[in-house]
């Protein structure tokens, strides 16, 4: 059989010859785009997504909703045809909700948002919906969604492992009501149940019973976006019980939403300013957001940079020094690979804590980061819940990426400072940022 040249190809990571000085337009947020698609599909009237992210994860979400009967029209308006500065410029998707139905087949790829957010939607469809995906999707936890949906009245056929592949036999409606889940392996279990709950007959009361709950900002994002389309949501933060979320049944409004840039995808570019002592402007950085990437302002400042939120966006400036950090990343786990890469180039050790659940992400990220940084000469050890990173001079070599977009961008960060780093399968960045190689070389003026 011919080798898979696309994925086995090695990408010579560009080495920075000096301080970067660039403006980088980062495409829309994956997490916001995929929530907006689900909410628009469940609404009682058409809606718009402006500047959606066009990437593997969001196209899988759109195609899955189309397979269940939703119409999604893709339009592009040139900036010359709309008022200057208008949010209407660029790509826009118009979502026309219809009666959800099977039979349908859904390819989740390796998208956590698709594999977790859509089984509840399928339970509302009329007919069977088959879910399948990449080999890694079979290993990612889904039990919280499967068990909860069964408890709420859904019929699901799976192979008993609490994972993909599976078939949801939608009955056109779902009872809903109270349910307990352990979401310690993924916040997406909670988000998944809340997103569809306005359409359950009794809404939902989700009680998290596990010891820890990762990625709280992503649950806040779910709650904020539900409220913005008219849903009534009670949360622990709004005076409710700890670890309990309630959604009241009701119709959802169609919304005209402009998607924020993906702040987690801004991470490698901010890291470039930090490790080269340069400066990067990210236009349209939101003043207020639930995206976990906003925490980078604080984390990368502690690691040696400084930032200013201006009317043009976020200006992040490196000082030339990169410091280690001791940090709890439980809320912002998806930032770990990029922080680990910077930490490997720092002037002091780092400890990254409270991210044991990353072992079940796109790959086992703790094992992958340890192995790949150490193979370049680094000194990283896994702890029970994270990484301990002692910087050492690194050398070139192959950086394997395990079909994980954030491993690929982590390798690119190291490559800026270390000559001769070759990244396996840079195309895997297409999961959330298909233009990464071009944006990266553009930033470097190459
Ligand atoms: O809801 C979301 O959009 C996400 C939640 C988080 O998942 P986990 O809670 O599984 O870490 C995050 O890591 C993922 O990238 C996106
Ligand atoms: C964990 C991630 O993705 P997913 O939505 O597939 O869980 C990620 O993007 O870092």
From TrEMBL:
Gene: aroA
SUPFAM superfamilies per UniProt: EPT/RTPC-like
EC number: 2.5.1.19
Signal peptide stretch: none
Pfam (any one): EPSP_synthase
Domain Enolpyruvate transferase: start-end pairs: 17-438
GO molecular function: 3-phosphoshikimate 1-carboxyvinyltransferase activity
UniProt KW keywords: Amino-acid biosynthesis, Aromatic amino acid biosynthesis, Cytoplasm, Transferase
Record bears the keyword Ribonucleoprotein: no
Any single Gene Ontology cellular-component annotation: cytoplasm
InterPro entries for this protein: Enolpyruvate_Tfrase_dom, Enolpyruvate_Tfrase_sf, EPSP_synthase, EPSP_synthase_CS, RNA3'P_cycl/enolpyr_Trfase_a/b
Binding site for 3-phosphoshikimate: 30-31, 35, 186-188, 215, 334, 361
Record's catalysed reaction(s): 3-phosphoshikimate + phosphoenolpyruvate = 5-O-(1-carboxyvinyl)-3-phosphoshikimate + phosphate
Entry's localization field: Cytoplasm
Active site: 334
Subunit structure: Monomer.
Binding site for phosphoenolpyruvate: 30, 112, 140, 188, 365, 406, 431
Record protein name field: 3-phosphoshikimate 1-carboxyvinyltransferase
GO biological process, one term: amino acid biosynthetic process
Main location: cytoplasm
Function of the molecule: Catalyzes the transfer of the enolpyruvyl moiety of phosphoenolpyruvate (PEP) to the 5-hydroxyl of shikimate-3-phosphate (S3P) to produce enolpyruvyl shikimate-3-phosphate and inorganic phosphate.
UniProt record similarity statement: Belongs to the EPSP synthase family.
């Amino acid at each position: 059989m011919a080798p898979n040249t696309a994925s086995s190809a090695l990408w010579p990571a560009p080495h920075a010859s000096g301080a970067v000085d660039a403006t980088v337009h980062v495409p829309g947020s994956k997490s916001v785009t995929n929530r907006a698609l689900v909410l628009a599909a469940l609404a009682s009237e058409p809606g718009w997504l402006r500047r959606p992210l066009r990437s593997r994860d969001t196209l899988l979400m759109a195609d899955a909703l189309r397979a269940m009967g939703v119409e999604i029209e893709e339009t592009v308006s040139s900036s010359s045809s709309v008022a200057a500065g208008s949010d209407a410029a660029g790509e826009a998707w118009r979502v026309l909700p219809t009666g959800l139905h099977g039979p349908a087949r859904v390819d989740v790829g390796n998208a956590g948002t698709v594999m977790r957010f859509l089984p509840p939607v399928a339970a509302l469809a009329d007919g069977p919906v088959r879910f399948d995906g990449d080999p890694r999707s079979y290993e990612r936890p889904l039990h919280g969604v499967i068990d909860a949906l069964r408890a709420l009245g859904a019929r699901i056929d799976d192979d008993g492992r609490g994972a993909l592949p599976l078939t949801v036999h939608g009955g056109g409606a779902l009872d809903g009501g109270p349910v307990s889940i352990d979401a310690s392996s993924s916040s997406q279990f909670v988000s998944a149940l809340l997103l569809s709950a306005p359409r359950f007959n009794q809404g939902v009361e989700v009680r998290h019973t596990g010891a820890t709950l990762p990625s709280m900002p992503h649950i806040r994002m779910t709650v904020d976006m539900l409220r913005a389309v008219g849903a009534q949501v009670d949360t622990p933060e709004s005076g409710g019980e700890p670890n309990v979320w309630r959604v009241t049944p009701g119709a959802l409004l169609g919304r005209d939403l402009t998607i924020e840039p993906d702040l987690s995808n801004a991470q490698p570019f901010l890291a470039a300013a930090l490790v080269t002592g340069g400066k990067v402007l990210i236009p349209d950085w939101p003043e207020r957001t639930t995206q976990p990437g906003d925490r980078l302002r604080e984390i990368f400042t502690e690691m040696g940079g400084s930032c200013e939120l201006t009317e043009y966006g976020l200006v992040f400036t490196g000082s030339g020094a990169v410091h280690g950090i001791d940090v709890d990343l439980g809320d912002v786990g998806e930032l770990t690979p990029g922080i680990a890469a910077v930490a490997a180039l720092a002037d002091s050790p780092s400890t990254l804590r409270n991210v044991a659940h990353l072992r079940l992400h796109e790959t086992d990220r703790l094992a992958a980061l340890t192995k790949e940084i150490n193979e370049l000469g680094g000194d990283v050890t896994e702890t029970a819940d994270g990484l301990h990173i002692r910087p050492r001079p690194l050398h070139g070599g192959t950086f394997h990426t395990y079909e994980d977009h954030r491993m690929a961008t982590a390798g690119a960060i190291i490559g800026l400072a270390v000559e001769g780093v070759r990244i396996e399968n840079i195309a895997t960045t297409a999961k959330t940022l298909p233009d990464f190689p071009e944006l990266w070389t553009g930033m470097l003026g190459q």
